[in-house]
Amino acid sequence: MRYALARESGELVMQVGRNHPMVWNTRAEIDKWISDHLELLGGLDWRVGYFFKAKFDRESLKIVYSKNGKEVKFK
Fold this sequence. Notes:
alpha+beta
C-alpha cells in the first residue's frame, strides 16, 4: 500500500462496506481508477495532478501517501 484516497480535509476515504481505505500500489492504478471514477460521475470538473473533482461529486478528492498522509505531487 503506497497510495490512498482522501477528502480535501485529509480524511481517508473508506471502501464501501469495509473498514479500510481505498489504496493502490502504483500511479498507473491511481490514474485508471480516477479515469473510471470520473466517467461514472459525469466527467471531470477539474484536476490538478492528483487533486481532482468529478462534476457530480460534492467533494474534492486527493491521492495521499498511505504512510504519512502527505499529498502526492504529479511528476
